[in-house]
Amino acid sequence: MSHISPTIWQFLVKWMTNFALFPPEASKIAPQMDALYFFMVLVSLIGLTIVVLLIVAFSILYSKERHPVAEQIEGSTLLEATWTIIPLGLFLMMFVWGALIYFRVFTPPANAMNIYVVGKQWMWKVEHPGGQHEINALHVPTGRAVQLTIISQDVFHSFSIPAFRVKREAIPGRYTTVWFEATTPGTYHLFCTQYCGTEHSHMIGDVVVLSPEDYRKWLASSTSGASIAQNGERLFASLSCAACHNARPDARGPSLANVYGAKLPLASGGTVTADDAYLREAILNPSQHVTQGYAPIMPTYQGQVSEEGIISLVEYIKNLNSDYRIQQTLNTTDLLPESEQTAAPGAKVPATKGLVKP
Amino acid sequence: MSESTIVKLPDQSTARIPKMNYLSKENGILSWLLTGDHKRIAILYLISLSFFFFIGGALAGLIRLELLTPQADLMATDTYNKVFTMHGLIMVFFFLVPSVPATLGNFLIPMMIGAKDLALPKINLLSWYLYIAGGSLMLYTMATGGVDTGWTFTTPLSTHYVNTNVLTTGLAAFIAGFSSIFTGLNFIVTIHKMRAPGMTWFKLPLFVWAHYAASILMVLATPVVAIAIVLVALERTIGIGVFDPTKGGDPILFQHLFWFYSHPAVYIMILPGMGVISEVISTFSRKRVFGYTAVAFSSVAIAVFGFFVWAHHMFIMGISNYSVLVFSLLTMLVAVPSAIKVFNWTFTMYKGSITFETPMIYAFGFLGLFTIGGMTGVFLGTSGTDIHLTETYFIVAHFHFVMVGGMLMAFLSGIHFWWPKMTGRMYPEKISQLAAVVTFIGFNFTFFPQFILGTLGMPRRYASYPPEFQILNVFSTAGATILGVGYLLPVLYLVWSLKYGKIAGNNPWQATGLEWQTQSPPLTENFVKMPIMDHDVYDYEWLEAQQEKEKEVASAR
């Protein structure tokens, strides 16, 4: 090997030691998806082999030298039926098998741990329920179902973890979800796979799979001191949501305690289930989502709350079982317009509502 | 060279280029620019298409060069984004969509059905001018800074976030769309109204059937992308908010509108290529196409089903699980007619009398690559595996196998096959066989590694990538170099053959189509007298009898 220049040699060694042909399987769904993948590879190979063998065989058997005069054949209904029905059968089998996997990937189990992901040009922001924040990284434990609730703050992105065989589009203005259960500790690629502008190829990161114990340690060491719901409570107060949503007899807005998951009657008729998507919409476009018995007086918070802020508010509302704490804050606050006016007219300027960053 | 052509015609040794033909009838640049002759317009298209293919190909070369190393080092990421966007736009709208229909289709459909011209010659010329207008605008866009939305114009990226020439690009695609609509319209009217006496629907060559199916798609689907582009333009300029979630719009709606065109568009691209393959395999097997009606109807089936599968581009985009189910099932159904075609083409060779001229070698390449491209399409149509494979290099490899491995192979096959008819001269056989083989090898080297890259999860449209993907990317770039040589060779020897090629005679391939029963290059009016279709399609026995008769007449003289 002495005649190979050392630079090239170095390159070759680097490539050979750092060369991948198949992605690692690090989630529960990965082996299932790979089984279907290899089944399809097998069918394709058999199909391709049949076509190529036929072409080669016919080329040899019926070349002009061997077979100077062609026999005119119309066709054959039997053969047509054969190569209609067999591929159709195989394709339908793949369809059913694939659909089973698809439904498994997008139907989370009830006990899944929810992690929020916000995509923006050009980074992934991850929020754990305990308030741990990550950028371009995602720490998850093995052996536990993890659901990602994904939204984009600007353009389409797509959250892809090849080692888990899962991927989900991050869509502006809409929550999407995907779930997985990691099986093997390690560090895996995280890609944005939907083209999103200049730095698209830098919107990458690491998915770190930890054993449950390491994950607990990581959570403890990365805590920011407040959970998402606690951040939400702060935001709830600073946006003066409690001015109306306070469950007092004269309250102008509905009580939010235990509202999550409930069926709400709408002013426009019909009912709606108060899920993440509905709550998000009700904050951003309140006049479109007024519940029965209330006037459409809530202002929009479009542009005032970031997607993370909305996530915090929604998580707060999710965990809100009583209005006790809200009413407690009311007694000690002067955020109510009435109390401002009666206390000292003109003396206090209401806090400016800028973009609230939790 | 002449040994490898099928038979030496009695007249081929003495053949001359006829004095009167569509090329010699009038001279001067204006006679070309104001022509209504479908054959001259086809030549205009061929030249302009080749020009755009060259630009698109050069951009592809830049992409492959950039991906030689994991870092974005050859160009800035912005530049890379513009390069792949322009590559996609030019190749899709200015090469693949018009490629076979506007050149071969334009040249041959009237001749195949025994007509003097297309039904609407001036509309035909107009569609070329629209193509040129759109193309020039696209080049202007590229020269003044390009565009970086991806050829898919995804909102809200295209409407709110990029500062490049989205509007002029949209306008260019919009104009090119009308060119495509007019071509499709012209074909439909011509095929319905201009067939020669005796030319019933089931005597039409399969090339015509395939173009008929593609034309329906052009006319019905293209307006939808035009609407989508207009909405993007309105959203970008005055902010109407159809696609903007902050105004109550829905960005998913754009995806629906865009793919409602862009999925049928892949059938607009591939169907005419399938038509070419039917003609070529039949001619070089000396045999009628196996299961003629099955092949004809499978073209129509592809066109019909092709309209109802668009949402398979959106399986992970938050459409409901149940619509995923429906669209995945329909996608499986559209895969079946393609399988039917492949097996029918293969069985056309059964008990034939096969020769291996260049068009046939390209057709073999088509069969192999299209089979791979089609099967990998099933990987993506299957909802479960699509989750992992979509938006990666797997999808890039898949559509290049269908579009480049399938369509471009068919295009080159067709160009070689009808070159003697178009120019009156043969291309050099040996070197073109070599070019076909080089193209095939280069193609596989370029795109096969991309299937593995996609399976590994390498996302598409990345200027930089993790280092463990490098070796496969190096393979791919090396293959692209070979592929480049494979494409350059035909340009050289075809131009050479215009002056030095052997004179072809009327029917060098002994093919049965009406286009071969007249002089090469043809008269402006195509036929001396209106042909009467008194025999079956792909009727090689009729052809033989016809030649016997001619010999008798010649010896009696």
Task: Describe this structure as you would to a colleague.
The complex is a heterodimer of chains A (358) and B (557). Chain A is an alpha+beta fold and 358 residues long. Chain A has helices at residues 6-17, 29-61, 77-106, 212-222, 228-238, 276-284, 307-318, 324-331, 337-343, and strands spanning 113-120, 123-127, 133-135, 137-141, 145-152, 157-161, 166-170, 176-181, 186-192, 205-210, 263-265, 271-273. A 5-stranded mixed sheet of chain A has the order 3-2-1-5-8, covered by helices on one side. In chain A, strands 4-10-9-6-7 form a 5-stranded mixed sheet. Chain A has a two-stranded antiparallel sheet with strand order 11-12. The model of chain A is unreliable at 333-358 (pLDDT under 50). Chain A has 2 domains: 22-65 and 76-224, Sandwich (Immunoglobulin-like), CATH 2.60.40.420; 228-341, Cytochrome c-like domain (Cytochrome Bc1 Complex, Chain D, domain 2), CATH 1.10.760.10. Chain A is built from 9 helices and 12 strands. Chain B is mainly α and 557 residues long. Chain B has a single domain (2-556), classed as Cytochrome c oxidase-like, subunit I domain (Cytochrome C Oxidase, Chain A), CATH 1.20.210.10. Chain B has 17 helices and no strands. Chain B has helices at 29-33, 38-66, 77-96, 99-112, 121-143, 157-161, 166-193, 206-238, 251-285, 292-305, 321-348, 358-381, 383-389, 393-423, 429-456, 470-500, 540-556. The two termini of chain B are 31 Å apart. The model of chain B is unreliable at 1-10 (pLDDT under 50). Classes of the chains: A alpha+beta (358), B mainly alpha (557). Chains A and B meet through helix 2, helix 3, strand 7 and strand 9 of A and helix 3, helix 6, helix 9, helix 10 and helix 11 of B.
Short account of what is shown:
The complex is a heterodimer of chains A (about 350) and B (about 550). Chain A is of the alpha+beta class and about 350 residues long. Helix content of chain A is about 35%, strand content about 20%.
